[in-house]
Design goal:
Blueprint lengths: L7 E8 L2 E6 L3 E6 L5 E6 L6 E6 L3 E2 L2 E2 L5 E6 L3 E6 L4 E6 L5 E6 L5 E6 L3 E6 L4 E7 L7 E3 L5 E6 L2 E6 L7 E4 L5 E6 L6 E5 L4 E4 L5 E4 L9 E4 L5 E6 L2 E6 L4 E5 L6 E6 L5 E6 L4 E5 L4 E4 L2 E7 L2 E6 L4 E6 L4 E7 L2 E6 L2 E6 L2 E9 L7 E4 L3 E6 L2 E6 L4 E3 L16 E3 L3 E5 L6 E6 L12 E2 L4 E6 L9 E6 L4 E5 L10 E4 L4 E4 L6 E4 L3 E5 L4 H4 L8 E5 L8 E6 L2 E5 L5 E5 L3 H10 L3 H11 L2 H13 L3 H10 L3 H11 L4 H11 L3 H10 L3 H10 L3 H11 L3 H12 L4 H17 L9 H13 L20 H9 L5 H21 L11
Antiparallel strand pairs: 1-2, 2-3, 3-4, 5-8, 6-7, 8-9, 9-10, 11-12, 12-13, 13-14, 15-16, 16-17, 17-18, 19-20, 20-21, 21-22, 23-24, 24-25, 25-26, 27-28, 28-29, 30-31, 31-32, 32-33, 34-35, 35-36, 36-37, 38-39, 39-40, 40-41, 42-43, 43-44, 44-45, 46-47, 47-48, 48-49, 50-51, 51-52, 52-53, 54-55, ...
Helix pairs in contact: 2-3, 2-4, 3-4, 4-5, 5-6, 6-7, 7-8, 8-9, 9-10, 10-11, 11-12, 12-13, 13-14
Length: 823
């Protein structure tokens, strides 16, 4: 068995069972973990002391290589070497003055970055041709990492970290990160977070803007290595006789004290299940990630060994052992199913029967993410996204141009019973929406576009496909909600909250929870924003979130229990009221009387407010009237009563839409039904004068009605405001003088003359800002001349005739499908 005799400087995996290591004894050794054998690949010349090793990336878009075939080795002689898997040195390149301290391929394998003792950062082609010198500084650069998009480079500069884009003249980001020299950095492509380790004996986590997210306590010795797991959920830290496994938020899962000396380099296997460390005493240390836990309701699943899981039912303390042929890579427990992916197969267990799993072979690649919904589950690997039923039937595989599955995680992909949502990495303002059953784009094929970059997305889990909603947090930490069904018209994206750091939908009903800056908030009925935004605050539950400490994260929302992980790794369970979920269930079954009885029993304003919004959304105005009365919204009760007395179902529908703020839809309903006057009247009621006049002119009816109501409105404002606002109408009137001869040039000229007399010409462009001049008698002097001759008797007769016609038409039509309005 071949072993190293000197310090091991670097290690790198080719497959999940094969590792290469380099040492100061000039050997490159291959380790086979299946057989336990080691073999010397090549003995380097005595003047080459290896420092860093990085395998050429395996994943090139969708096309996959089975294993890495070439690696870059940097050395103390100022060169880097391209070496094949068989140990042949393909090329050696003079790169730096002094040692080449690190070398890294970008994610596409199209470029190589090297850094050295000479303080230079250089970019090379994959064949070893120099492209550019990115930077030159006076101190050695000990470590380097590519940004997720391969368009930026992160490197060390003493105690500083620097992010430099490849584009010339682009803005450079630089900040002081440690109190000692920084020895190692890593930048994860999935979570976009940065790790740094330094001689100040600390390791730290940063976001890509250089903002600190976590700083460890000082260790006894300098931190010599850090490395992200491929999926970005974990990272490993190496120091003198120390190996630590940490969550991405910084807290520690495990601490081991192996007798290794300093661990100079850490490499994760491709599947993220094991790590290897290059040790100062000539050893290579191997570690496997075990004791992972998954919980759902009364079940707790623990990965006890690489191929063994233990299932415990906490209700009766029953224990089942699950054995797998290959090592477990990913698992997910939700919706009464446990889904486990191994290196070659996928196992689907039902919580009702742990003995007979459904097993099918995986297509290709290593599964990096499992997401579950009630009816099906999603597997993500380097080759694509695959949706399966719990019976193991393949359903669909959504795709879009430029899709990179290797950087997807639970925050950027979401799954419901009918929809798959994926945040685009190339343009982070875009969310792609797909039908789950077919994998085709949702609706008319348009993607969802937001004004800012999106950080996290989540689909609601219950209800009809047409009502499916997606909630998302953008880079300003604002929470938004919108519909996923998109046909032609632009769907509203409505803000629900600010400073939201994490969110989750309930698995049993469409209740949303989130952690805001200082409080934990539950939106019992988020659709209230589409129905009546005024009562949204009354539908919320809020409590102080200071007990969760800094940067907590919502792990799950099952039933009425929310699980939150604090920054120190501890779990906190919060129970919310079960009554809103029962209310959702009653409303989805149209059990309105039961819903009212429940609210009367609970006697909470929150429940009544939710019921009011639910009733309006479902057009049950009788229940809405009861609920609004219960929360003291008397004006809305009166409006609902007025809706009930409307003569036609189209008018009722239009006014329900108006109640919810959907003015355009209300107008369309009326115009399609031929109720032109009613469409004009709703614009008059809303003081939308231009639209009211536009409709009147277009349909050649009720022009005098619009002008009459307009004049009546303006008379209360005084002459100057009257003059300014009336001018556009008078000019339009001049175009259509044949329709109302009483509006003519004379009146228009009188107004202009009056304004001239008042010396207000310089301010004509700002007249709508003027306050009425109560002390000035001049406006009142001119007012009689400016008044239009309005025949109110004639107008009222026309309106009465329109209402009579509508009533006769409604009573003459055959009964059709109910709109949910009850008397």
């Amino acid at each position: 068995m071949v072993t190293h005799q000197e310090l091991v400087s670097c290690v790198g995996w080719t497959t999940a069972e094969e590792l290469y290591s380099c040492s100061d004894d000039h050997q490159i050794v291959k380790w086979n973990l299946l057989t336990g054998e080691t073999s010397q690949i090549v003995k380097l010349p005595d003047d080459i002391y290896p420092i860093d090793l990085h395998w050429f990336p395996k994943s090139l878009g969708i096309k996959k290589q089975t294993q890495a075939e070439i690696f870059v080795l940097t050395s103390s002689d100022g060169k880097f070497h391209l070496i094949s898997k068989l140990g042949r040195v393909e090329k050696s390149v003079e790169a730096h003055s002094g040692a080449v301290l690190a070398g890294r391929w970008n994610y596409e394998g199209t470029a190589l970055v090297t850094v050295g003792e000479d303080g230079q950062i250089k970019i090379w082609s994959k064949t070893g041709m120099l492209r550019s010198t990115l930077a030159h500084q006076g101190t050695p650069v000990y470590s380097v990492a590519w940004g997720p998009d391969s368009e930026k480079v992160l490197y060390t500069a003493g105690k500083q970290l620097i992010i430099k884009p490849l584009q010339p003249n682009a803005k450079i980001l630089q900040w002081k990160a440690h109190d000692g020299i920084i020895l190692k950095v890593d930048w994860n492509s999935v979570n976009d977070l940065i790790l740094s380790a330094g001689e100040d004996c600390k390791y730290k986590v940063w976001d890509s803007y250089g903002r600190p997210l976590y700083s460890s306590q000082p260790h006894e010795h300098p931190i010599t290595s850090v490395a992200w797991a491929p999926d970005g959920e974990l990272f490993a830290v190496g120091s003198f006789h120390t190996l630590r496994l940490c969550d991405k938020t910084g807290w520690s899962y495990a601490l081991e004290k192996p007798n290794t000396g300093s661990i100079f380099n850490i490499a994760w296997s491709v599947d993220g299940t094991q790590i290897a460390g290059a040790c100062g005493n000539g050893h290579v240390v191997f570690a496997h990630v075990v004791e992972q836990r998954w919980e759902w309701k009364n079940f707790q699943v623990t990965l006890t060994k690489r191929r063994t899981m233990q299932v415990r039912n906490v209700l009766n303390d029953a224990v089942d052992l699950l054995e797998f042929r290959d090592r477990v890579i990913k698992a997910s427990l939700n919706y009464a199913h446990l889904v486990v992916s191994t290196s070659l197969q996928c196992y689907v267990f039902s919580t009702k029967n742990w003995n007979t799993p459904l097993i099918f072979d995986l297509k290709e690649g290593t599964v990096s993410l499992i997401l579950q919904a009630e009816r099906h589950f999603l597997l993500v690997d380097g080759g694509g996204i695959y949706l399966y039923s719990y019976e193991g039937r393949f359903l669909s595989s959504p795709k879009f141009p430029g899709m990179r599955t290797d950087i997807l995680n639970a925050q950027t992909v979401s799954l419901s019973n009918d929809t798959i949502a994926i945040k685009d990495k190339a343009d982070e303002k875009i969310i792609f929406l797909f039908e789950a059953s077919t994998g085709k784009p949702m609706g008319d094929g348009k993607f969802l576009s937001h004004k800012n970059e999106v950080l996290e997305i989540a689909l609601d889990q219950k209800g009809l496909t047409n009502d499916r909603k997606i909630a998302f947090i953008d880079k300003n930490r604002d929470l938004y909600i919108t519909s996923v069904k998109r046909f032609g018209k632009e769907e509203q994206i409505i803000k629900l909250g600010t400073m939201v750091h994490t969110l989750a939908w309930s698995d049993t009903c469409n209740i949303l929870c989130g952690l805001q800056d200082t409080r934990f908030t539950v939106w019992y009925y988020p659709n209230t924003v589409y129905v009546d935004r005024d009562i949204l605050p009354k539908t919320l539950y809020e409590r102080d979130a200071s007990e969760f400490s800094k940067n907590p994260h919502i792990v799950s929302f099952v039933g009425n229990q929310v699980t939150i992980r604090r920054a120190d790794g501890s779990l906190v369970h919060i129970s919310i009221s079960p009554y809103p979920a029962i209310l959702h269930e009653y409303v989805s079954s149209s059990k309105w009387e039961d819903a009212v009885r429940l609210c009367r029993f609970v006697k909470e304003q929150t429940m009544w407010a939710c019921l009011a919004a639910m009733a309006v959304a479902n057009q049950d105005m009788t229940t809405a009237e009861i609920a609004y009365a219960a929360i003291g919204e008397i004006d809305k009760v009166q409006y609902i009563n007025s809706i009930k007395n409307l003569p036609s179902k189209e008018s009722k529908m239009a006014h329900i839409l108006m109640f919810s703020g959907n003015i355009q839809e209300a107008e369309i309903v009326l115009l399609q039904a031929g109720l032109v006057y009613q469409a004009i009247q709703i614009n008059i009621n809303l003081y939308n004068w231009e639209r009211a006049l536009e409709l009147a002119v277009k349909y050649k009816t009720h022009v005098d009605t619009v002008l009459a109501y307009r004049q009546k409105f303006l008379e209360t404002f005084g002459f100057l405001n009257f003059a300014f606002h009336q001018l556009p109408f008078l000019f339009q009137g001049n175009k259509h003088r044949g329709q109302w001869p009483e509006v003519g040039y004379f009146v228009t000229l009188q107004i202009l003359g009056s304004l001239l007399a008042l010396k207000e010409v310089p301010r004509l462009g700002r007249l709508h800002h003027l306050e009425p001049k109560k002390a000035d008698p001049l406006p009142l002097k001119f007012l009689p001349e400016l008044k239009l001759q309005i025949d109110w008797e004639k107008i009222k007769a026309k309106i009465e005739m329109e209402i009579t016609k509508e009533r006769e038409r409604s009573s003459g039509s055959q009964p059709t499908k109910s709109t949910g309005l009850k008397h």
